[in-house]
Amino acid sequence: MNLQTYLATRAADVDAAMDKFLPKAKERPSTIHTAMRYCIFSGGKRLRPVLCLAAADACGGEISNALAPACAVELMHTYSLVHDDLPAMDDDDLRRGRPTCHRVYGEGMAILCGDALLTEAFIVLVQTPATKRYGAREFITELARTGGSRKLIGGQVMDLEGEGKSLTKRELVRIHSAKTAALLTTSLRLGAMAANATPAKLAALTAFGSHLGLAYQIIDDILDVTQTTEVLGKTAGKDHQAEKSTYPASLGLARSRKVAAELTRAALDALKPLGKKAIRLQEIATHLLVRDY
Amino acid sequence: MNLQTYLATRAADVDAAMDKFLPKAKERPSTIHTAMRYCIFSGGKRLRPVLCLAAADACGGEISNALAPACAVELMHTYSLVHDDLPAMDDDDLRRGRPTCHRVYGEGMAILCGDALLTEAFIVLVQTPATKRYGAREFITELARTGGSRKLIGGQVMDLEGEGKSLTKRELVRIHSAKTAALLTTSLRLGAMAANATPAKLAALTAFGSHLGLAYQIIDDILDVTQTTEVLGKTAGKDHQAEKSTYPASLGLARSRKVAAELTRAALDALKPLGKKAIRLQEIATHLLVRDY
Fold it and tell me: Considering only CA atoms, which of B23, B125, B6, B8 is closest in space to residue B66?
């Protein structure tokens, strides 16, 4: 199976599981359930859940045991997009090629929809089968701490507060780590934990995730400059418009690409303890570096 | 110890525990942590956490084992207030006698602050010591389902969608159950679970909570009509202004008071299986019926 087929197959696994986990659209009150499904079934790349499943695979686990954490990290990611897109934050009209949640359902409903997706992440995650090493307590702690005010939310706060300011490289790395790398890393870790991974394998995936996450964010910021809104499915050129400090803004495109390539190499190095089983993770990391959307 | 002293003592227990659980205000990014503490340490009545502790007490458990769920339900409640007060929802300037979160920190930060309080609820709850009957899986399932799109959030959706419409008594009970009674009941249940309560005791507290929750909401709606903004610490007369269907609006004050008294009696009846140990819960239910703020 080539990588594109693998990614499509795993994304389809996630979509099928998500459809089972989420309340049906007609369930009352149907507005919120329709809105939740609109945001979730929107043709996203499913990067985080696929990383979760690939990590479970790399640790010798069953994919079926990692579907709950895979859906949970996607729910967490989607809620953060819905809230970040709100007029009071990044004020965006377009996401994944379609009107943002608040443009379709109104601002109040979009706030509630994000809240519901966030809460649903925990409803779903707690259904992960316990392994010898890890249970509900470890799964929930992992996701909640990553989603909290010190990581994901803290990253968005620093991002908003950094607009119009010139940030140091260190501050930029801090924001990217909190906003992006943390949830990518947690996606991998939860997949590994669902596969009862040894602490050594968990540590390897943690290192992989933190390098990959930074590389991913740098590429994302490069694409914001070089690509069109049509290709991205979200408004291009937003960072420049919001006067955000980014790698391409401070280092230029060529040097930013070089840093992303170095980080990807470091990520691949970190995978070594996992051996051949990590082939899909290697392929995904390499693919993300050269992606164009 | 009389009831007022008991309530004050338990509220102080909750505040001390909350201070330990929450990130310090100066921890980076400090804006979000300052905002979280502004919302939490605002002189609220701490009804839900006190019910949680009193339920643990009534089931023969240690208060110290119920502090994590007590703080978790207060975090969940506070997040819902912060988001409900936003301009896109109930648009309120005053809460617990002080400016609402978005009035102080801006709308974007208030959305993120609510998100962080919600996430923190799970960070804290998962720290509850497991008992023979209940562990992280049961605790998280209980709170997440109550906070989700079918209960707490669903209730707020139905409430928003019901504005300007005349609702049936059945619809009204459905909204009150989802918006208010569910979290009161979960507060009691989590306290009982932290005390390793038998299924019979848990069922008794569930019945108590659902009656008490409806009574509480009816009294709340009565006070919205009869009290001043000063006494309430939140804008009085909001329901009438937003054309919300409420018990006092549809049945009048006198009949609404009668219904609240009947529900309180049913709540007290439900406590019988707990015997004398439930004395504080009895006192609280009776006190809530005659409260004036």
Answer: B125
The alpha carbon of residue B200 is apart from the nearest alpha carbon of chain A, in Å, by 25
Nearest Cα residue in chain A from B126: A137
pTM of the model: 0.97
**Cα–Cα distance measured from residue A122 to residue A119, given in angstroms and rounded to the nearest whole number:** 6
Q: What is the nearest CA distance from B162 to chain A, expressed in angstroms? A: 11
What are the tokens at A1?
């199976």
Other CB atoms within 10 A of residue B51 CB: 31
Which residue is listed with tokens 């995978």? A271
Say whether residue A112 is in contact with chain B using an 8 A CB cutoff. yes
3-state secondary structure of B128: coil
Tokens 């009668």 belong to B258
Looking at A41-181, list the stretches that DSSP marks H as alpha helix, in order from N- to C-terminal side: 47-58, 67-84, 101-105, 107-125, 136-147, 152-162, 169-176
Query: In terms of DSSP bridges, do strands A98-99 and B94-95 run parallel, antiparallel, or are they unpaired?
Result: unpaired
- The CATH topology of domain B3-290 is Farnesyl Diphosphate Synthase (1.10.600)
pLDDT, one tens digit per residue, over A128-165 is 999 999 999 999 999 999 999 999 999 999 998 998 89
- Degrees, nearest 5: CA angle A11-A15-A17: 115
Peptide bond just before A248 cis, omega within 30 deg: no
Assess contact for A65 and A146: CB atoms under 8 A.
no
Predicted-assembly ipTM surpassing the 0.90 threshold: yes
The phi, psi pair for A99, rounded to 5°, reads: -60, 140
pLDDT digits 0-9 by tens, A204-260: 999 999 999 999 999 999 999 999 888 888 888 888 888 888 999 989 999 999 999
Measured CA to CA, the distance from residue B207 to residue B219 in angstroms comes to 19
Superfamily of domain A3-206: Farnesyl Diphosphate Synthase (1.10.600.10)
Strands (E), B53-150: 94-95, 98-99
How far apart, in whole angstroms, are the C-alpha atoms of residue B30 and residue B35?
A: 8
Per CB-CB distance under 8 Å, the chain B contacts of A193 are none
Residues 34-63 of chain B with CB under 8 A from chain A are 36
Q: Do B111 and A88 touch (CB under 8 A)?
A: yes
Q: Quickly list DSSP for A152-176.
A: HHHHHHHHHHHTTS---HHHHHHHH
Distance from CA of A281 to the nearest CA of B (A): 29
The residue extents of the domains of chain A are: 3-206
Cα–Cα nearest to B69, from B184, B150, B190: B190
**Assign residue B106 a region: left if phi > 0, alpha if psi is -120 to 50, beta otherwise?**
left
Spatial CB neighbours of B276, under 8 Å, sequence gap ≥ 6: none
CA B108/CA A156 separation, integer angstroms: 10
User: Across the strands, what pairs with B94?
Assistant: B99
Cβ contacts of A140 on chain B, cutoff 8 Å: 122, 126, 136, 140
Q: How many other C-beta atoms can be found within 10 angstroms of the C-beta atom of residue A75?
A: 29
CB of B59 closer than 8 Å to CB of B274: yes
Residue B177 in contact with residue B210, Cβ under 8 Å? yes
